[in-house]
Each structure stands twice: as structure tokens, then as C-alpha cells.
Amino acid sequence: MRKGLSIITVVAIGIGAALFVILGRFGSIPSGLPDTNIETTYAVLSLFSVLYGPIAGLLIGLIGHTLKDAIFYGSPWFSWVIASGVVGLVVGFAARSIRIHDGEFGAKQIVRFNLIQILANAVAWFVIAPVLDILIYAEPSDKVFTQGLVAGASNIVTVAVLGTLLLLAYAKTRTKQGSLTKEA
Amino acid sequence: MKKPIIEFENFGFQYRAQAAPTLQDINLTLYEGETVLIVGPSGSGKSTLAHCINGLVPFFYPGTMTGSLRIQGKEQRSLSIFQLSELVGTVLQDPDGQFVGLTVAEDIAFKLENKNVPQAEMIGKVAAAAEAVDILAQLRSSPHELSGGQKQRTTLGGVLVDDVGILLFDEPLANLDPRTGKSAIELIERIGSRPDKTVIVIEHRLEDVLHGRVDRIVVMHEGRIRADLTPGELLSSDLLAETGIREPLYITALKYAGCRITPDGRPEHIDSVRLDDGVIGKLKSWYESQDREEIPEEREAVLELEQVDFGYDADRLILRDVSLRIGQGEMVSIVGKNGAGKSTLSKLICGFHHPGRGRILFRGRDMRGDTIKERSRHIGYVMQNPNQMISKGTVFEETAFGLQVRGVSGEELKERVFAALRICGLYEFRNWPISALSFGQKKRVTIASILVMKPDVLILDEPTAGQDYRHYNEMMEFLLELNRGGITVIMITHDMHLMMEYAHRTIVLADGRKIADDRPAAILTDPAVVATANLKETSVYELARRAGVGEPKEFVRRFIAYDRRIRAR
Amino acid sequence: MKAKMLTYTRLESPIHRLTGAVKLIFFALWSVTAMITYDTRSLLAMFLFGLVMFKISKVKFRDYSFVLYLILFFMLLNQLAVYLFSPAEGVKIYGTSHEWFHIAGRYNVTWEQLFYQFNILLKYFTVIPMALLFLLTTDPSEFAASLNRVGVSYRIAYAVSIAMRYIPDIQRDFHNISFAAQARGIDMSKKEKLGARIKNVSAVLMPLILTSLQRIETVSAAMELRAFGHGRTRTWYNARPFGKADFAALAIIVAILAGSMLLTFHDGSRFYNIFERTE
Known about the structure:
The structure holds three protein chains of three kinds. Chain B is α/β, with parallel strands linked by helices. Chain C is mainly α. Chain C has ten helices and two strands. Chain C is flat and about 70 Å long. Classes of the chains: A mainly alpha, B alpha/beta, C mainly alpha.
């Protein structure tokens, strides 16, 4: 990094944020539980954070969530925007210890990734989002903590299942091909 | 006298991740004001050569260079990618990837913005560049309002705005329909005619590029320069067949008639090729030796559309009163310019949308009540870009996925997957990771993943896009084999060769209506249809017209029939 | 199928003529003000001011009506949730309890609760018109330049521009990929069991991600070739200089911020209390 972000990171932030917008709008699928959706966009955010690091993760979360709220719902809900940014940031710290570009994603990396993503989602949804809701909007604490709990738990599960699946699949595309032989 | 602009000397390059060099023994000098075409099959190293000139190698794609490459007298490795961008302007293959601005004006201004050019100065320069590429009226348009050709012109404007001497076009025709491609070449020719511009075009669609002026052609093969000669010399040689590049169709026609192609016959252009009495005599006797038209057999209908209307809004229909009939075992192409309703048509057939009016019948039965999943038992859909279909790690997993979703497992699954892989020539690769496959092989995987469900009808969106002549041939022969095996094939395509060489019938859509439905020879010789569908008249038609041999339409028909017989051997 | 989005439309109005940078600052300070204050008078005044701005801007109702309905629906849900979770929140805040009627158990309706929820409503109604107005009257092309002008690094500003540029492309990719997947019988709706559904979703996400990564590479190469990141600064084709109206707008927003803070905090509480203490 000579001066600030590299071009690849700038573009990754832009494209990542665009993906966040589209999946945030079209990529939530019913989980079967009432009022809880599987937000696939957080699985993809986690993948991008692991690929491009904490700064990219933070900015994809912030920009993506702001644009999604703005374009489709008319007004950004800042407490949750910030929470999304925090998820990207914290998961991004896993980037250094998981060398996903080399196709390395075994049991050890899976555990490491999941510990970090649980931490990230817990901080974002159990603490930051509800506390900001109270500070900014003076919403009742029972309400916002319950909402945060549901959202956080569902995101943790989503990222644990779908995020891990995506990282595994991505790692496979990066494995060294070595010696491949045709089989009769 | 001539001033050298780009000089390769014993040059070689090896990508960091690769075991062998991609370029070897490159000795090549390009002079100021020249227009040079670089041809070669995919994997021949022609794109890498371009990347060496514009600096993406080694700045973006790292690796090791050997020998020397001088650009305007300066050693490439002593320059930064920014300094190189001041000498070389590149128009990339994918117009959507290069068009980064939110509007035409911003995209043209992009480089000036990065160089901190003051706004007032920028506005005038952008207008001038936009005028040069004829996009001035769309300055405020966003990329989604533009056609592929307009996007490409914008990116060219973005290169011209910053007065560079060397213009590099990386497969400029890859994403364009025939007519837009023709105007792109005319534009390149116009810009290349300025004496201070050196133009390099990388392309494998030789005939289309030769529509404009080309001074020299460099033939790349397996990482080396195979030849460096004039268009006339190249067309008179056997190099095209050897390196797997398609020769212009009028040349093929002349060869079928037994004519010898020589440089002094000026074969580089259909308008310049010499048609003396000898040549005309040969064309005439060939023409007369060919059979008259055979009547195609009547086939049982497998898929029918009856007066179908469709639109997202009731007042803006995308398809209007479309009726068509696809016979069992037919191989049909659907053509029309972008937005004519081709992809909507396949979405209707697959059940993604439902017609506002009219019916869609499968073997005489109305499919109205059938879900997407139910229809997918009979009708398979293959996208243009295989990367948009593949989600699994290995060839086997990907091919098996659709069956697994349907609850097939165990021995039956294995057998059916193996059978599909054998048909597609992928059985030996069944345990390979998909990332190790070539583009064409990936495409076959996506076809295998559909075939495994034993559909009666296969709809393919641009089955040969982005493939060179050899891979085009392989893909089309493969589809032909499937078709002979009983599968009805519907191809949505811009590719005129594909139509001529393989389609039994061509359906033309324009503005949501069916405007023609006939054999390819008839379609490609009807000027009105050719114009509305953004096609181009085939050069064989022009040849027949110029030589005055027979009825040009009939000449084209006989050429196609003869050509198919030759290819079938 | 085609989801409606809020988009900028070119119109002639004093609001449209303001530079994007000023509108951005205005909107940011406005949001901060509305976030901090819970003073009913201040919120009411801002709400009315917002309506006047809307009138001046000449934006058409049909350009945002669909979002408005959505917002009203969410707001209704939110109001219900607030009440269900905390029917005595108003009593807690204002320190008094004037019951209107009783429903059951801990659920009664107090004037304090009604007033508290009215204030929440008002808070949204001060922010939303301005947010809508900002989106509907700011040319996206000017947005990155505006961010850069207010101090955001040009790289990050350009990342925002790239996001806006490629949202439609990625939306098209997403729909095409899920079309092809569904045409293979891969179902993501409730008809499938949860486990299968997640597997099937990854069949859409994986190609979408891989093509997006491919796109990142192409776009980066193209930007590299056109000297992005060369200088410490960059100019913007669509930047606009500040005019008189822009300075006036800045003055207005600073006055609103100051006035609102004064009104809100002169009595030491964020909330405006209309209830008399009955001790």
C-alpha cells in the first residue's frame, strides 16, 4: 500500500457494497421461524472481509447498508448501518490468520473464522445496535435488546453455516492443482 | 524513414503462477502510423503480448520478463504503469468492466480526473473526444441506457481524451453483434488513419477486422510469432488452417470453386478481390454442379407458442403476438438485437414468467400450470457464461447437483452422471476441480449438468461466445451430435457462422415481434431482415453479386449446403 | 420482479440546484440534530420545515410513493413493538402517569406513553423527508465528488461511486443466475426443507461471488490502465462550485442545529415535558 487503499481494495469495496445492496434486498430467505430471515448478505460480507481485510469489511458494511436502506427504504437506519460496518471490520481481522488466497481452509481455519464471526456479530447486534438505538432513537431497551438478540443469533447461525460453506467453496477454487491425471 | 514505436527483441514472459513461459522468442517491431492485427487461437499468447505493451504485465499480472521491449524508445521495465498509460491507451474486451463512470461524460473524463486536470479544461476535452467517437448526444446517459456498441465507443473516447500515440484494442468484437462490430471496425479505421496513431488490434474474427484497413498481420501460435505478413499474403497461405483461424467466407467459396488465392489477386477484401474471367468461370461451373433445393421434412411439433404477449407492464409489451413452432429434433437459432425479447422468450418457455395472452404448448399440451421445476424435466437452459451456472467444486458434483435435488442417489445417480459425462467427453475429468478446466470444458460441464436430467429440448444462450474457431467447431459438432441423438436444440445467438453452418432454421425477433422465420440462407440474404436484426450480409452473397454468377440467394444456399457436406466429412 | 428503487430525476428547483456537497452536509447535520433532540417543539418545527422544502423541490409523489407506504408500514410495526415491549416507557421518561384506559395486565394506555410514541413518530418524520429529498434531488454523479469535498478520501468516495455504478449490473447477474438455477430445478422457496434451501442458496451465491471477484479484477485492471490512484488528489468532472444559495443553506442548517440544541437542553433534559408533576 503506497498511498492509502490499493486499487483492488477500492474496487472490492465498491463491488462488495453493491453485492451487499442486492443481497440485502433480494437475498433474504425465510428461515421457517416467524419474522426471522436468513440474511445471506452477511455471509457474503464475511467472505469479502476475509478476502480483503478489516478496512474493506468495515467500508463494505457501512456503504452497502447505507445504500441499501437509502435506495429501497428511503432512509438509512444508522444504528444498524454502524453494526454492519462493525461486523465487516471485526471479521476482517481474521483475514491475516486465514490465508484463504492460498486455498487454505481446514478445520483450524474454520474454527478460527467462526470464533471471530461470533464475536463480531455478538458485539454488533447484542451491544452496538441496541445501544445506539437507545442513544439515538430513545427506544425502549427491552425492545431493542430483544431485536438485537434475534438478529445477532440468526446472523451468527447464517454466517456459521452459509459463510463457512462459501469460504470452503472459495478455498477449493484456489487450491494448487498439482498433478491432475485423466482417469479412464 | 519509418519510426519504430514498439520493439520486441528476443522477448519472453512467464507468469509467476505458471510452469512454462507464455511468450518466447518474440522479435517484432511496430512502426508509427501502422495498423497491425494480431491473430491467434486462444492460449496463443496474444492477450499476454497486449498486456506487455500496456503494462498490465508485470504490474498487475506479475511474472518474469526476458529480453527487451522498448516502447517509444524506452525500455518497458523502466517505466511505471502510469508512464505507460501516457503512451498506450487500451480498450478492453469487456465494455462493462472498463466503463467505470456513472455516465458517459464521467467515464470519458476518468483519466483526466486522475491526472488532476482542472474541470474547465476537462469539459472541452471530453466533448471533443465524445464527438470523435460519435457519442456526444449521450454524454449524460448511464451505462444501462446504452447498447454494447455505445459502451465500447465511450471507452474508446476515454482513451482518446488523453492524446496517446498507441491504441490497443483487445478483442474489440467479442461482445458485439455483427453490424455493431462492422461500425466498430470502421471507427477504428477512421482513428487509425491519423498519421500519429499506431493501432494494434487483437482479434480472431479475421474477416470482420479486414473490413477496415490493416497494414500487417502478426500470427501468434503457442507463445511464438508464427508469421508477420500482409493480409494478402496471409490469405494466400495455409497458415490460417494450421493455426486454427477462420478464413473469410468468400475465400472459402473461391477455394470450393477451385480458385487459387494469390497476393496479387488482392484477396484481403471482398470489394478488392480480383474476379477475372477465369475466376468467374470456375465459380459458374461450381455453381452449376450443385444440386437444387431439397425440401425439408415435416417434423412433429415439440414446442409451440401461440400468439404470446408478454410485458412487465401491461402498456409496455416486450413480446407481442409471437407464434412459433419448434419441431422434434430440430436445431433452430433465434436472433435479434439486444432488447428484441430473446431472453424473455426463454424465460417464458422455462416458466419464469407467464404469458399475458396466448399459450405455450409442449408436445401439444398447454404448460400453463407447470412449475419451473416441472418444466425443467423437459426443457434445459444453458447460460452464455458458464461461470454463472457453476457452483460446485468438481465436475462430478456439479453434474450430479440437479439430480440430487430431485432425490436421485446411489448407483442410479452415478450411472446417469457418468453417462452424461461420457456424452460430453468429460468422463476422464470427472474428479477434477472445475477451476482446472478451460472455458470450453466448463461450458461442457454446464451442458452435462443439464443433459443429466434428460431434457427433450435444450435452450442455449450464445453457445459459442468467447470461443475461438477450434473451440467453436468442437462445441458446435458436439451440439450437432446431441441433436442427432434426438435432442431438440434452440440457440440464441448473434453468430452468423453458427446460423449458416448449423441451424436448420432461423427465427428473427425485432421489437418483441417475430419478423422472419426461414432457413438461414434466406434470412442472411434478406436486406431488410439483416438490417433490423443487426446482422450483416454474408460476403458470399456479395461475391455472387459481384461475379454475376447465378441468383445470389441461391448461390448462398448452395454454398451453405456444400459447406455442410464438406464439414460433415 | 423488477424492484422499484429511489432514483434521482433531473428537475429545476432551488433544492436541485444546491450542490451535492452542501446537501450532504445539510442532511448529515439535520440527522444529527433530529437524533439528539427529543424536544417536541423542535421536532415539530423541523418537520414543518421539511414539508416546506419538499414543496419547494417539486419532486413528484409517484417517485417516492412506494417507499412512503413501505416506511409507514414499518413505522406502524415499530410503534406496536415499542408498545408491546414497554407500555410504560413514557411514564419512566416523563415521571408521571396519567392513565387514559386500561387494557389488561401491565398494558394500559397512558397519555405519557402516547406522547412518547408520538415523539418517536415525529422524529422519523423529521428525518425521512430530508433523506428522501436528498436521494431524489442529488445527482449520483455528483455524489462522489461531494464526499471528497467534505473530507472523505477520494479512494473511498470513488468506492461509493463504483457501488452505485455496479448495483444494476449485479442485480442483473443475480436474477440471471437464480433464473438458471431454478431452471435446473433448484428451489429456494419455502417448498424446500431448510437444509436443502441453504444448499440451494449457495448454488446461487457461489457463481454470483465468483463472477463478482472476476469483475473486481477486470475493473481494477481497467482503472490501473487509466491512472487511478496516481495523485494525492483528483479532480471531478461533475464537481460544482458553491454559490450563494449553498452558503445560505449552510447558514440555515447551522442555525437549526444551534436553535434546536438550545431549545432542547436549556432545561437540562433531552425530552420536552408537557405533564405537570403530581406529587
